[in-house]
Amino acid sequence: MRSTVPSLRARAHGHSHGLIDPSIRRSRDGVRVVLVSLGLLGVTAAIQAAIYIATHSVALLADLIHNFGDALTAIPLGATFLLRSDRAERSAGIAVVLTIFASAITAGVFAILRIIHPLAPEHLLALGLAGAVGVIGNAIAARVRLGGGRRLQSPALLADGQHARSDAIVSVGVILSAIAVALGAPIVDPIIGLVITIMILRITWESWHTIRGHDHHHHTDGHGHH
Q1: Is-contact 117 50, C-beta < 8 A?
Q2: Torsion 124-129-135-141 (CA) sign
C-alpha cells in the first residue's frame, strides 16, 4: 500500500483557501463544519438571488456571485471525501476556481455596462436587506468555520473563517450602495459592483496559487524546502 503521509503533511502548511486540509478530511466533525457553513452561504446566496431579480443591483449581483462561489467549495470536499483521492480534489478545486473566475468576469462586465448605461436599482429597502443577509450569513459561517478550525486545529478552516469574515465586510458594500442610490447617486452601485469583482478576482488568484502550490508540494520533501 502506497503511503500518502508525506504529501498530506506537506499539505498542512500554509494557506489553503478552497482546498481541503488533511485534518478536515480525516474528521466527520470537519466535514460537518464545512457543510453547515456552506449551507448557510447557499441560503444567503439564494435569498440574495431572489432580491437581485427585483432590484437589478450590480453590487448585489457581484456579492451574490461571491457567496455562491464560496458555497461551491463544497465540491472539492465532497470529491475528496467520497473518492479519497488527491487528484479528484485537485481537479474539483481547479473547476471551482475557474467557475468563480468566469462568474467574476460576468459581474465585471455587468458593472462596466451599468457605468456606461446607468440604471438606478429599484426596491432600495430590499437591496439594503440583501446586504444585511450577506453580512449575517457570512458572519455566522465565519463563526462556524473559526470554531471548527480551533477545535480541529485546522489551518484551512481558520483561513476560510477569516475569509468569510472579510466577505461579511464585502456585503456591507451592498448596504452602502442602497444608501447611495437613495441619496441620489445611482452610479455608486456599479462602482461598488466593480470593487467587489476585483476582490473576487484576487481571491480566485490566491486559490489558483494554492492549487498550483499544492501541485509543487508533491516534489518537495514536506519540510517546506523550495
Answers
A1: no
A2: negative
Residue 25 Cα to chain centre, angstroms = 19
Q: Which three cell numbers stand for residue 76?
A: 472539492
Closest CA to 38 of 24, 26, 51: 24
Note whether residue 9 is domain-resident.
no
Q: Which pLDDT tens digit goes with each residue over 85-113?
A: 777 777 777 877 888 888 888 889 989 99
Is residue 7 a part of any domain in this protein?
A: no
Rounded to an integer, what distance in angstroms lies between the CA atom of residue 203 and that of residue 161?
14
Going from the C-alpha of 15 to that of each of 63, 125, 189, the distances in angstroms are: 23, 38, 32
Question: What is the grid cell recorded at 22?
Answer: 488533511
Task: Tell me the residue range of the domain where 100 lies.
Answer: 17-214
Task: Report phi then psi at 142, rounded to 5.
Answer: -60, -45
Q: What is the pLDDT of residues 66-83, one digit of tens each?
A: 888 888 777 776 676 667
CA distance 179 to 58: 14
Q: What is the CATH number of the domain that holds 31?
A: 1.20.1510
pTM tops 0.70, yes or no? yes
| One-letter amino acid of 141 | A
**Any domain includes 28:** yes
